[in-house]
Design goal:
- The complex is a heterodimer.
- Chain A is mainly β.
- Chain A has one domain: Immunoglobulins (Immunoglobulin-like).
- Chain A is 0% helix and 50% strand.
- In chain A, the strands form two sheets. In chain A, strands 2, 4, 5, 6, 9, 10 and 11 form a seven-stranded mixed beta sheet that branches.
- The N and C termini of chain A lie far apart (37 Å).
- By secondary structure, chain B is mainly β.
- Chain B has one domain: Sandwich (Immunoglobulin-like).
- Chain B is 0% helix and 49% strand.
- Chain B has a five-stranded mixed beta sheet, with no helix packed on it.
- The termini of chain B are far apart.
- In chain B, 33% of the residues are buried.
- Classes of the chains: A mainly beta, B mainly beta.
- Chains A and B meet through strand 4, strand 5 and strand 10 of A and strand 4 of B.
Chain lengths: 114, 111
């Protein structure tokens, strides 16, 4: 399975600012996924990022708020723009299934907006 | 993607066997059943996957009846470190399939 490095692991940000989260994979993957996990809740898919094309966003998530970059097959970024306290969550990246061990997730970025 | 229903929480003690049942009445012919485990401050981790009957690995067993409308994750002799949230997911066994997480089951193992 792949190994994912996600940065930062946590951050406290002022409302109105933006934060870019990085996801680095140790192998080339076609698909990367970004999830949000609000406190005490399950994971919700934000978007799917395919290298070389625009990300595909799920209902309720828009590119202006969560722009995503996917410059190559091992890296992606998610930006949380114009943050408000409601954006306080854990953001996780994931990559496609490799082998028989299911999908791999990063350890997440815990974002607190004050 | 088939919807899943799990108990919100379960309590157990060290050394006991824990069985978590997931209901998926609308499972499709091509769908597999996959379980993930999530510890606090970590991303979900794949535990086990199955299509029918029984699957066993070094971590858990997965029991799937003939009608496949439910499945049971069995954790033998749990320890404190098995305290986590367990998610049951149902979908195609495709590399690019986006995962849809339900509420999960919060398992608390006590001494």
């Amino acid at each position: 399975s792949a190994v994912i490095s996600q940065k930062p692991s946590r951050d406290i940000c002022q409302r109105g600012t933006s934060l870019t989260i990085q996801c680095q994979v140790d192998s080339q993957v076609t698909m990367m996924f970004w999830y949000r996990q609000q406190p005490g809740q399950s994971l919700t898919l934000i978007a799917t990022a395919n290298q070389g094309s625009e990300a595909t966003y799920e209902s309720g998530f828009v590119i202006d708020k969560f722009p995503i970059s996917r410059p190559n097959l091992t890296f992606s970024t998610l930006t949380v723009s114009n943050m408000s306290p409601e954006d306080s969550s854990i953001y996780l990246c994931s990559v496609e299934k490799i082998g028989r061990d299911g999908y791999t997730f990063g350890s997440g970025t815990r974002l607190t907006v004050v | 993607l088939a919807k899943t229903t799990q108990p919100i929480s379960m309590d157990s003690y060290e050394g006991q066997e824990v069985n978590i049942t997931c209901s998926h009445n609308n499972i499709a012919t091509n769908d597999y059943i996959t379980w993930y485990q999530q510890f606090p401050s970590q991303g979900p981790r794949f535990i086990i996957q199955g299509y029918k009957t029984k699957v066993t690995n070094e971590v858990a067993s997965l029991f799937i009846p003939a009608d496949r409308k439910s499945s049971t994750l069995s954790l033998p002799r749990v320890s404190l470190s098995d305290t986590a949230v367990y998610y049951c997911l149902v979908g195609d066994d495709l590399s690019f399939q986006k995962l849809v997480f339900g509420t999960g089951t919060r398992l608390l193992v006590s001494p």
